């Protein structure tokens, strides 16, 4: 069966990852995590449509984080917004130098671009990929010694087009499911 080949598994995984249901679950998880509530039907449909039309998850998430609702949850102050973005996106607080730099970025470029720069950072991409390996495969990502560790996390295509295909292509679909 073609599905049992690595390329067949990648096609299936990519189709699942890019499905309406997958994108809806992603948007719903963002609303719960970042805004503390479920998305309204119109909100979900707007973001899901953008994802299905090819807008990257990083751009859509950054747009959500640029909302006045997110800023209000962060305390409606630039310094608190930077800290909230760091905590929510990177899982850590911004250091004093980072805080100063990102406050300058926020004032110069606005919330949307600042959020996108943090969301599209190698640090965040690394966290996403490592989380997928840990949560989907229950194992750590093995990086070949010949590949610089951070090189995996520099291209947005890894997150939006290939990561789940790569993860799921390592799963043996011919094995019987455990009961």
Average pLDDT? 79
For the sheet with most strands, the description reads: none
Query: What's the Cα radius of gyration?
Result: 18 Å
How many E-type strands?
Answer: 0
Number of helices: 9
Proportion of helical residues:
55-70%
Question: What is the strand and helix layout of this fold?
Answer:
Layout: H1 6-17, H2 20-35, H3 41-52, H4 57-65, H5 68-74, H6 78-90, H7 96-119, H8 122-137, H9 156-168
Helix pairs in contact: 1-9, 2-3, 4-7, 6-7, 8-9
Give a description of the structure.
- The protein is an all-alpha fold and 179 residues long.
- It has one domain.
- Helices cover 68% and strands 0% of the residues.
- The protein is built from 9 helices and no strands.
- It has helices at residues 6-17, 20-35, 41-52, 57-65, 68-74, 78-90, 96-119, 122-137, 156-168.
What keywords describe this structure?
9 helices, mainly alpha, 179 residues
Care to give the gist of this entry?
The chain has 179 residues and is mainly alpha-helical. It contains nine helices and no strands.
């Amino acid at each position: 069966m073609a599905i049992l080949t690595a390329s067949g598994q990648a096609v299936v995984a990519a189709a699942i990852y890019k499905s309406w249901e997958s994108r809806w679950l992603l948007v719903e998880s963002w609303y719960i995590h970042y805004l503390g509530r479920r998305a309204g039907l119109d909100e979900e449909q707007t973001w899901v449509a953008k994802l299905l039309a090819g807008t990257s998850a990083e751009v859509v998430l950054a747009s959500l984080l640029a909302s006045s609702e997110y800023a209000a949850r962060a305390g409606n102050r630039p310094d608190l917004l930077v800290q909230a973005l760091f905590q929510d996106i990177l899982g850590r607080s911004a250091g004093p130098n980072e805080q100063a730099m990102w406050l300058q970025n926020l004032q110069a470029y606005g919330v949307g671009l600042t959020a996108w720069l943090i969301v599209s950072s190698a640090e965040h991409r690394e966290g996403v990929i490592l989380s997928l390996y840990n949560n989907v495969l229950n194992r750590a990502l093995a990086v070949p010694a010949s590949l610089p560790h951070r090189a995996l996390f520099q291209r947005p295509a890894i997150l939006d087009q290939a990561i789940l295909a790569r993860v799921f292509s390592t799963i043996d679909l011919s094995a019987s499911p455990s009961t």
